[in-house]
Amino acid sequence: MKYHKFSPIPPSGAVIGHRGIAKHAPENTLSSFKLAARQKVDWIEFDIRLTKDNSLVVFHDDTLERTTNGTGWVHEHTLKELAMLDAGAWFSPAFRGEPIPVFEEVLPELFKLSLYLNIELKIPPRVDEAHENRLCEQVITLLSSSWPSLQAWPLISSFHWPLLEKIRHALPEVPLGFLSETCEAATIQMVANTPNAALHCDYQNLSEEMLNLCEQANVPVLAYTVNQPEIAKKLINAGIFGLFSDDPQHLRA
Length: 253
Ligand code: G3P
Ligand code: MG
Hints:
Elements: E1 14-18, H1 30-38, E2 43-50, E3 56-58, H2 79-83, H3 103-112, E4 116-121, H4 129-146, E5 155-158, H5 161-170, E6 176-180, H6 185-192, E7 197-202, H7 208-216, E8 221-224, H8 229-237, E9 242-245, H9 248-252
Helix pairs in contact: 4-5
The structure holds SN-glycerol-3-phosphate (G3P) and magnesium ion (MG).
The site of magnesium ion has 3 residues, from strand 2.
């Protein structure tokens, strides 16, 4: 398959570490990202979201309970409040004291680790457009002011497509990933009409028929979250562009 319009680096055949290496370290933490580099996984996915005081933190859930010792909505906490939380102990006592990464602070570390990045933009339910605008403004400012010129652009993805439109408008050269649980003809067509873009789907909803449609439309597909080698093999044989996995080493083996 050829993808003239999609230009992330590495270009193809990639297994992407989901939230770092979520199987073996607390998701979306520096430990998880360092482990990816140690395991020679060169492409990682992680999630970012906005705090109450308009900073960006690396965090998956809308709320704090599952992966920290805090409670409540992430976007109702300031950076200072979030900095006091433990984002590692829930996973294992060995990771006690692991902080929630501040996006701006963790980026230089990720560059040092030579990781290629897929940054997923998250918003809580029922927020107004002002929240979306503030999130995008922060991302755009960071990408346009602090992104090293020799560093490949990150692949920016989201389930909330209006966010991607805002990013594309401000930074047309940044590749985009349209996240969708399902893979439907209309979605494939929309991605096909968007330069330098991919479709990111739940692998469980990817039929052979839909993958063929994507191939015909020259739409690269990345599938989440694949942890079983036999499923990975099937998807790779079917021409998938990339796979998100909590345990890339297991897939490789
Ligand atoms: O970006 C792929 C995958 O991370 C999407 O789902 O819920 O793990 O962010 P989620
Ligand atoms: Mg994600």
